[in-house]
Amino acid sequence: MLKPNFVKKGDKIAIVSTARKISHKEISEAINIVEKWGLTPVVGSTIDLEYNQFAGTDDDRRQDFQRMLDNNEIKAIWCARGGYGTIRIIDLLDFSIFMKHPKWIVGYSDITVLHAHIHNLGISTIHAAMPIDIHKGSEESRQSLYDSLFGKKIKYNIPSFEKNKTGNCKGKVIGGNLSILYSICGSKSSIDCKGKILCIEDLDEYLYHVDRMLQNLKRNGYFDGLSGLIVGGMTKMHDNNISFGKNAKEIILEIVRDYSFPVVFDFPMGHIEDNRALIMGAEISLEVQKESVTLKYM
Question: Of 134, 110, 168, whose CA–CA distance to 33 is shortest?
Fold first, then answer.
């Protein structure tokens, strides 16, 4: 995998929206953070733009993102928020200049479309908090994004959850939002998981639908030859009046019960306050022990 150059003080970082509409006021705290880091924020034309629920039309969002992709002065593109909409423009984007001069693409949730698609181009991206919520998150979340962008050494140690499947593994870390991974199955953005470590997280889903999505990933071979599974926040899950009978963790364990790879629950990523940055496509080692979990870059 090719890693873009890490940023340095004075570099320009673009803030655009590929999905739901967002105002300049909503990203003001993020702009302050970027400036405190010594970077120069460049606010895209999609900020304050509205077209129904979107940050402008599909073409508005495509053009804004494309401009930032093609501008060599921009060293990172920070997606302002998720919601829905990135999948509507992914096939309209031209990555030819980006592949010659790659830069960091940063975000999570709906931005999983970009993480997956760009992974297939052989370039790393950063799964991390976005301008809409970075100021609401933990200091560890903000620091991890800073460290990822500036190329600092990263290592995560977290307590082990009792239902984790212990073991050690190595591989490229991939994935993101479960609903998005489900939505791109069968497309050219779908990812090959063999020998890799898959991360999943999600928000505001019914438990039966979590099962449906995981069954589909299983049928698409996502767990065949997988090196390890990291489960982040499965936040605000819902059940029907007639209970599904399992919570999200139990659903996941049932899906992967016939596989031998280690499984980590409650990893700090996703729609939670402590949303640590992960460099997608980077080689990591994952040690899952009874007392603790260690993730480090190789």
Answer: 134
